[in-house]
Amino acid sequence: MGAVLVLAVWRAVIAARAVRAWGYAERDKDLLVRHGLLVRHLSIVPYARMQYVDVTAGPLERAFGLATVQLHTAAAASNARVPGLPPDEASRLRDRLTALGEDRAEGL
């Protein structure tokens, strides 16, 4: 019984760290997305390179009231996602990124 409790606490600590490992920052010309516990990844996606932005929510995300914003660019390797957002924040981010992408793309 004690081993199960220790394992459950350990899983909760790892899950909390995994959630904190995701982050994003909106800058003037691009969006920064970071993630990773052991290996840190930092993606910089210029607004002008975004082709479209999706908001998705699978059954588990909907059960917890969360959504994921997925950014699509011409290069498959540069696609980024921001999971675990409240649906209102995900919609706001999608609308903002879409508007910024359209504004920046006009200058190309």
Features:
single chain; 108 residues; alpha+beta; PH-domain like; three-stranded antiparallel sheet; 42% helix
Report on this model:
This protein has 108 residues and is an alpha+beta fold. Helix content is 42%, strand content 33%. The protein has a single domain, classed as Roll (PH-domain like), CATH 2.30.29. It has helices spanning 2-21, 59-63, 87-106; strands spanning 23-26, 30-35, 41-46, 50-56, 67-73, 80-85. A three-stranded antiparallel beta sheet has the order 1-2-3. The chain has a three-stranded antiparallel beta sheet with strand order 4-5-6, with helices on one face. Strand 1 (23-26) and strand 2 (30-35) form a beta hairpin.
Set out the fold topology.
Elements: H1 2-21, E1 23-26, E2 30-35, E3 41-46, E4 50-56, H2 59-63, E5 67-73, E6 80-85, H3 87-106
Antiparallel strand pairs: 1-2, 2-3, 4-5, 5-6
Summarize the structure.
By secondary structure, this protein is α+β, with helices and mostly antiparallel strands.
List SSEs in N-to-C order: HEEEEHEEH
Quickly give the structural class: alpha+beta
Q: Using the coordinates above, name the CATH class.
A: Mainly Beta
Radius of gyration: 17 Å
Report on the biggest sheet. 3 strands, antiparallel
Query: Helical percent range?
Result: 40-55%
Low-pLDDT segments, ≥5 res: none
CATH architecture: Roll
Number of domains: 1
Shape: elongated
Helices, by number, come to: 3
Tally the beta strands. 6
